[in-house]
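pasting for ref
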Amino acid sequence: MPPRFVIEPAIATKISKMQQRVRWQHPVIRDRGIDQTRLVIDDSGAGDDSFSFLVLGDSGTGRHRTSSPQRRVAERLVPHLNSARFTLHTGDLVYLVGSHEQYHSNFIKPYREWLVGGDRYRKIDYNRMVFERPFLPVLGNHDYYDLPLWLGLLTGITTPLRYLLSSFIDLDISWHGSYQGDAYARAFLDYLRAVPEAQLGEHLDTHYPESAGGSRALTYRPGQFTRLPNRYYTFRYGGLDFFALDSNTFNQPLPLAITEVGRQELQQQRQRLEAKKADLLRQSGLNAFSPASDEREDLTEKMEAIDEQLYDIEKQLNSDRVSIVDTEQLDWLRDRLIASWQDPSARGRILLFHHPPYVSEGTKWAQGQTLAVRYHLRQVLDAVLSEVQSQAQGRPLVDLVLNGHAHCLDYLRTEDTGHGDAHIPWVICGGSGYSLRRQRPEGPAITETRDGKPHTVAKSHLYLGRSGHGSHLKRPYSGLRVEVAQGTPPQITITPLVAEKYKGDWQEQELEGFVV
């Protein structure tokens, strides 16, 4: 379903709605000195300097009814569950519009081993999930999307027919959207809005216990109470500070500071993409009932990629009308990173959020959203660097950044960017189930213009995504195992866990781990 047929809430709406759901800064919360952005994982091993965790992203699809890539990747991760301490998810947990109706098929069923009672997953309600093993996500753009009323009615009425024709019509859509991120909030957040006022204090005292010094924080108890405090949050594990962000509220393309010629170029690019999509639609009509499912899927995925590019162009062309940026979250990140660097017990820092600032995937690398996130993150890290330069002593400000959004596995390193984001490893884990994308034909080096000349700011060192054509088309879907070793700075090793579809068959790939 193309983005033009979905509704994305405004940034101010995303912020205000999420604040209401967690009763942000309610007097009863303030009076108890509760930090609504800090999470404590109740795990006896949380102090271990050596540990591992798993990563998934852009996975929440139910389109493939007979051969689910999402489930194939989950099965690659399951053997590591007993040794990994937790799982991070880089966003887009439920396609296409984060509907609560699709949590069962697109999340609960494929990840049943993570859940209490997962052997009876059909009986689990999406808003009552309890994780046997910690599962810590961030919001993707699809987790915020909604449907126009007419489209919701149409898709609901045609559901039985679409199911019968599922081998030909494969859509990830149901009656409803996310209700501006409400489904995600009810599934994962401590949804304080649903707690009666008379019981709020008791709830807070139970789940936000007093600690010896510092503010009170939500306690995540695997197998018992597994909720997150907010849409963005931080936690410490093994001496590493993790910062999970909501990049949906600082990804709006920057106001166009371009000439009329530049605007015309965007409009021309839009026209070319629309013509290309029209041609693909004609091909899709000719192949609608072809037995070659790979060919149909290839056409669908190409159209999805074009729709995403068109949507980003529209955002750029309308960017002059939008000025809201989530400064509260960005200031929070700045202050917490500074505090982490000034804390001698913190030996490293990892960021987790959906939209990648650096990526070599063919449709995302130059999008307005990508550049906006890069700009805002640079502002934060520049401010951090000015405060902690003496402590950092040339070390990268962040030890690892994990993103999704681009449907691939992409490992990049920034070079001398001239900013606080220099020499950082960036790993995009967005190929865990949804349609895969190709790497940009321009190659692995990402450049910016500096003093009138191109300057390399980042380079991709490993890319796993769609490759080949026709009968030689390869689709390597992936998750990650991340191992953290002792020491400061910590040595971080990443091992891709890959399930590849080739010529209709699935094969597990064994890739060597690499140190970032």
